[in-house]
Amino acid sequence: MAFSSIEDFLAMDGHGAYVWASYGIAVASLGWNAVHPLLQRRRFLRLQKRRALGEATP
């Protein structure tokens, strides 16, 4: 599919909003799937450190 300008490419024959929104959702989902385990690991390690030091859990 050839587009005559960048505006035509971004508009995608009137379907651009749906196309770019789906790409945005996909990128956000992949980003969340990459970051969330790291946040959980950090939280888990902090909790284990507190337990090892004998502090009360929040």
From TrEMBL:
The chain crosses the membrane at residues 20-39. GO terms for cellular component: plasma membrane. It is found in: Cell inner membrane. It is a single-pass membrane protein. Keywords: Cell inner membrane, Cell membrane, Cytochrome c-type biogenesis, Membrane, Transmembrane, Transmembrane helix, Transport. Required for the export of heme to the periplasm for the biogenesis of c-type cytochromes. This is Heme exporter protein D.
